Structure formats: structure tokens, C-alpha cells
UniProtKB/TrEMBL annotation:
Pfam families: FAST_1. This is FAST kinase leucine-rich domain-containing protein. Residues 438-510 form the FAST kinase leucine-rich domain. InterPro entries: FAST_kinase (IPR050870), FAST_Leu-rich (IPR010622). PANTHER family: FAST KINASE DOMAIN-CONTAINING PROTEIN 2, MITOCHONDRIAL, FAST LEU-RICH DOMAIN-CONTAINING.
Length: 631
């Protein structure tokens, strides 16, 4: 009797673990349904008490299906066969990760009552079966919809998780549109009633969607032109900050691309700092070269020099895996990072030269712009690009070739064949050029001092006739630029010179704009008019006098010379004939083996044994100084 009583009490204690201690559940406002009562006629208290209590089944079971999050609490101890089942359903996944279960694993079994973990409830004993919407695929959606409004209409009819698919589909559709159509569609998108609902849903789901979906949403939102200071963009930036440690290589690439396209702000700056930390930690684990280049652009010129060198070393290690696109884009990546790696640039230049045929014109422009920003001069690269454009000049527009010539002029490179071909094109069709293009052409050809042996005069006259048609629209500074370029090419168009030498135009040039540059060009004009005997317009312009004291030399250069040579081994502000000034002068022996102090110059017997080295500032050059050797 005692054994039966103790066994009954033990079974009763084990049974008490199945009884829920509280029926109070906190429901968040996410569309959960209320508890419902489901009648089941298979409950049996005796079988329940005699079942295997070794399986410690919890009172609350949480599991995730593809479209529903269910919390289930069963009270099978009721003798009337009524079970209370709380089913909480939502139309989207509330957790970015799913719990994996064996499809054959059974939670509880009681004479035919069997609950299996399936993604679709196929058991006939489950009486509460609801139809959930199928998650939409953004690729399929972008194919079915032809406009951004169509995607929003689909979202308003039946929204599914994740909402990032709708944003990605909208950006995919927008990429196929022209600029005018894209502008109209964006305006319709902002005015659509479902657009604000989509933005709100994206913000609600930001913390629970997958990290790659979050970043693709941010990328699409930025590309769609949603203002950066909007609540949507700033909310996503804050959530990305919280989840930045979840980024894998793919997410890091997307995040770097997004930040590189955004304007600086507090949240963007914080994320850039986070990307720099991740790049410093994971640089050796990056497998794709495009990801490496995206990170290089994202870290920017303000990144620590140690990180820049680490990224450079990683790129050098991956040189064997570089594709043609990788080598072409590396110039821009280094320019954005403001890191000049001569070895890397030389290797990429060889790859660009060897595979230049078929290279897009925009890529060629980016390469030359990057070389200019990095102050990288590779004559073989410049010649290879110019040769390719010269051989394919018929497929390019005149404006494209002119832009290329402007960049080559900035780099100080003159390609005679390309400039001759371009000159012929201009002579054949001068009407296709506008005023700005004509002024740029004159600047390039006068700066590089290029003359075509048989068509120079015809070219100059064609340019003068085209520019004369803009006399009533051209500004004073542009007119001065054009006339000074003509004078440097030894051509003097009288109509343009007469217009420029009017008193009101001269006074405007001397009182407004870049006065120093205007005065410099006016001096060039006056000198050319005086020296040319064929021009009757030799007039004296009332220009400001030249400064009697030259500009002070660069202080950093003076400090460097003092530390390297010491005081007494160089002179400052050297005056030369014809009102020329030299910033610094250093004297060496004829073999350039040692520097001679100026106090010992009397001991030198012959001037032929002395070689002077002048450091001169050039105003038309971005470099602070240049070095000239004079015997």
C-alpha cells in the first residue's frame, strides 16, 4: 500500500511539471491572433499519467515555420478532452534564423495524437490550418513588374517578409530605365500611398532580417534617391552599426559600396570607422579582388597609413588573380585612398596596355584622372591609351576625345598623331563645337605648343570664326583665355582682340574674378602684340606694376635644405636679369659630387667648375617647385 501511494505521489509530482504556472503571455502588436479553444477527443488522463515521464517536455514550445512563429501551450490533463491551444500567427518570419528539426522527430505522442515539426502542417489532427502568403522573390518581381508603382501595388495587395525584396526589385527596375523615365518614376514612387507603408515596414524589420537583406535594402534605397537625412536611411544606418559584426565578405563589399556613395554625416563616419576596423582584422581573409577594391575606396584618404599599406600588400599578393577589370579599377581605388603604390600601378599599367582594346572610354578617363590625382607619370601607359583612341577615333565623339586631350595636357603629355587627327576633325566640322569646347581646344593646343605642318593656319582660322559667333555671349575672362591662347600660337584675330581691348572689359578684368591670373594673361597679350610686327594693335595697357619683392619661398623647402645642407650652402630669392626670380640656388662642383658653400666661392678659380642648381616655383604647375640645372 505504501509503495502504491509513493508511486502515485511521484507520478503526481512529475505530472505537475506539465501544468503551466501562468497563463499570462505578453503579446507584441505584430498581428498575433487571440487564444482559441480546440476540442480534441483523444485525451486520456490515465494514458497521460502512465506515459514516459523521462521525456521532459517543456510547457512552452517555440518553433519557427517558414511563415509563422508559433507558441504552443497544451493542457492535456483536462478530463473533458478540451485542450487550449494558443496559436500566434504572423504573415512573416520574425527571426532571421530558423530552428532546424528532424522531420521525423515527434514532440508528443498519445494514441494517435502526434505533433511533428514540419514546415507545412500536413497532419489531419491539426484543425487550425491557415494559408500564408509565399515570400516574394525580387528577381521574379522585377520581371513581372514594369514600373516602380507596380511593385508598390503588389506590396499593398499582400505584403510578405522580408520587405527588402520589394526595395531590391524597385532598384532593379529603375536600372533599366532612361534618366528621364527614372526621374518621372521616382516622383510617382514618392507620391504612391503604399510607399510610406513600405518604408515603415522596412524600419520595423531592420533588426530581424538577414544582414545581407538589410544591406541590399540600404544600397537600393540610396540608389533610388531617397534623401540621406530621412528617418528611413538614418534608421538603417544605426541598425547596421549594431549588426556590423555579422558582416561576411559579401556584406562587407555591399556596405563599402554604399558608404563610398554617401555624403559624410555622423552615422556614415561611424560606419566608415567600423569598416576600417573590420578591414584591418579581415584583410587577409578577403578572397574577391572586387571586395578588396570596394574596401579600399570606402576607407578613404583619411585611413591610417598602416591600413593603406596592408591593403596594398594584399593587392600585391593577389596580382596573379587580377582580371582586366581588376587592373583597370585599381587606379581609381588607389586614387580614392590617396595612396601611390608605384609597384602596383606599374603592374596594372602593363595589364591595361596589353588588354586595352575594347576598354570602355569611361574607364580610360578614370585611369588618366587617377594618374593625375596620384601624380603618377607613366609615358608607356599614356602612349598606349592615346594610340588606342587614335586608331579608333571614328567611333568616339569629339567631346570625348577633347576630354581625353585635356587630361593628357594636365599630365604634360603630347601625342602628335592624336592631336593631328583631332585637328582634322575640327576643321571638317567646326559647327559641332560650342564656346566652352573651343576655349578648351585653344588652351590644349597652345599649352602643348602643337602645330600641324600643313593645316595649322586653317585650324586657327576655323577656331577664330567659330568663336566670333559667340562675341555677344562670351564672358570677359573666357574671351581673355581665348585671345591669350591665340597669341601663344602666333595668331591674332582682330575681331576678338578689338572686343577684348575695350576699356570696360579691361576694367572688369582688373577689378573682378581672379585678378592675379587676369593680369598675368594681359601681360602675355601685351608682350605678344608688341613683339609681333604684323599686328597693328600694339597698345600699352595700364596694368599693375610687378612686385619688386618676390613671393617668399616655401618654408618647408627652406627647412628641408637647412637640415640637409646647413646654412650658408644655399641662397634665397635670387634676382636674375629680365625681372626673373629664383626661390633657391645651390652650387655644386662640375661632377656634382659635393655642395660648395657660398663663402668659399672665391677659392674656385674657374666658373666652368661650378654648376648651379636652381629651385624655381612654376605657377602653371601643381607641384610646389621644380629643379633646373644651369652651368
Amino acid at each position: 500500500m505504501m509503495n502504491r501511494a509513493s508511486s502515485f505521489l511521484w507520478n503526481l509530482r512529475q505530472f505537475s511539471t506539465f501544468v503551466p504556472t501562468s497563463r499570462t503571455m505578453r503579446l507584441y502588436p505584430l498581428g498575433f491572433s487571440r487564444p482559441r479553444i480546440v476540442f480534441s477527443y483523444n485525451s486520456n488522463l490515465r494514458n497521460l499519467l502512465l506515459s514516459d515521464f523521462g521525456n521532459r517536455v517543456q510547457s512552452s514550445i517555440r518553433y519557427v515555420f517558414q511563415d509563422a512563429l508559433i507558441f504552443k501551450s497544451r493542457d492535456d490533463f483536462q478530463t473533458k478532452g478540451v485542450s487550449i491551444e494558443t496559436v500566434l500567427t504572423v504573415s512573416r518570419v520574425l527571426c532571421p534564423r530558423r530552428l532546424s528539426f528532424d522531420s521525423k522527430h515527434s514532440l508528443f505522442s498519445d494514441e494517435g495524437l502526434k505533433i511533428n515539426f514540419h514546415h507545412e502542417a500536413s497532419n489531419e489532427n491539426v484543425l487550425t490550418k491557415e494559408t500564408k502568403p509565399t515570400p516574394v522573390n525580387y528577381r521574379k518581381l522585377s520581371q513581372e513588374c514594369s514600373s516602380l508603382s507596380d511593385v508598390l501595388d503588389t506590396f499593398s495587395e499582400a505584403s510578405t517578409f522580408p520587405s527588402s525584396n520589394y526595395i531590391s526589385a524597385m532598384w532593379t527596375i529603375a536600372k533599366r530605365m532612361s534618366d528621364d523615365q527614372k526621374r518621372i518614376e521616382k516622383q510617382l514612387m514618392f507620391n504612391h500611398p503604399a510607399f510610406s507603408q513600405l518604408c515603415e515596414q522596412v524600419m520595423r524589420e531592420a533588426k530581424i532580417m538577414h544582414c545581407d537583406h538589410l544591406l541590399f535594402s540600404l544600397h537600393a534605397i540610396v540608389k533610388l534617391g531617397i534623401p540621406q537625412n530621412s528617418l528611413l536611411v538614418q534608421t538603417l544606418l544605426r541598425v547596421v552599426q549594431e549588426r556590423i559584426n555579422e558582416c561576411d565578405e559579401k556584406c562587407l563589399s555591399v556596405l563599402s559600396t554604399v558608404l563610398e556613395a554617401m555624403e559624410p554625416c555622423k552615422n556614415v563616419d561611424v560606419l566608415r570607422a567600423g569598416v576600417r576596423i573590420l578591414a584591418d582584422q579581415q584583410v587577409w581573409k578577403i578572397e574577391r579582388v572586387f571586395t578588396l577594391q570596394a574596401v579600399m575606396k570606402c576607407v578613404g584618404k583619411d585611413a591610417p597609413i598602416a591600413l593603406k599599406r596592408k591593403l596594398e600588400m594584399k593587392a600585391l599578393r593577389e596580382l596573379d588573380r587580377f582580371s582586366d577589370l581588376n587592373s583597370q579599377h585599381m587606379f581609381e581605388a588607389l586614387a580614392v585612398m590617396n595612396h601611390r603604390s608605384i609597384t602596383l600601378l606599374n603592374e596594372c599599367s602593363k595589364m591595361v596596355i596589353g588588354n586595352i582594346h575594347g576598354c570602355p572610354f569611361k574607364v580610360l578617363i578614370n585611369i588618366l584622372q587617377s594618374c593625375r590625382d596620384l601624380r603618377y607619370r607613366n609615358l608607356d601607359l599614356f602612349k598606349g591609351i592615346a594610340d588606342y583612341v587614335a586608331t579608333t577615333i571614328d567611333i568616339w565623339k569629339l567631346k570625348q576625345v577633347l576630354f581625353l586631350l585635356i587630361l593628357l595636357e594636365d599630365l604634360g603629355f603630347r601625342h602628335t598623331d592624336l592631336m593631328d587627327l583631332f585637328m582634322k576633325k575640327v576643321i571638317d566640322d567646326p559647327a559641332s563645337l560650342n564656346m566652352k569646347s573651343i576655349i578648351s581646344i585653344l588652351h590644349v593646343y597652345s599649352s602643348l605648343n602643337h602645330f600641324y605642318k600643313c593645316q595649322t593656319q586653317e585650324f586657327q582660322e576655323a577656331m577664330a570664326r567659330s568663336l566670333t559667333g559667340y562675341l555677344h555671349h562670351i564672358s570677359s575672362e573666357n574671351l581673355l583665355k581665348a585671345v591669350s591662347s591665340f597669341c601663344l600660337m602666333n595668331h591674332f584675330p582682330l575681331a576678338l582682340i578689338d572686343q577684348l581691348l575695350q576699356k570696360d572689359i579691361i576694367n572688369e578684368l582688373l577689378t573682378s574674378g581672379d585678378i592675379e591670373r587676369n593680369v598675368h594673361k594681359l601681360r602675355i597679350l601685351a608682350a605678344c602684340l608688341k613683339l609681333d610686327t604684323s599686328c597693328p594693335k600694339a597698345v600699352d595697357l595700364a596694368l599693375p606694376p610687378l612686385p619688386s619683392i618676390p613671393l617668399s619661398p616655401n618654408g618647408k623647402v627652406a627647412d628641408a635644405l637647412s637640415s640637409l645642407l646647413g646654412e650658408g650652402f644655399f641662397l634665397r630669392n635670387v634676382q636674375l636679369p629680365h625681372n626673373y626670380h629664383i626661390d633657391f640656388e645651390v652650387r655644386m662642383d662640375i661632377n656634382r659630387s659635393r655642395v660648395l658653400p657660398f663663402s668659399h666661392m672665391d677659392a674656385v678659380t674657374s666658373a666652368a667648375d661650378i654648376q648651379s642648381l636652381f629651385l624655381v616655383r612654376l605657377f602653371h604647375c601643381d607641384l610646389p617647385c621644380t629643379v633646373t640645372h644651369l652651368p
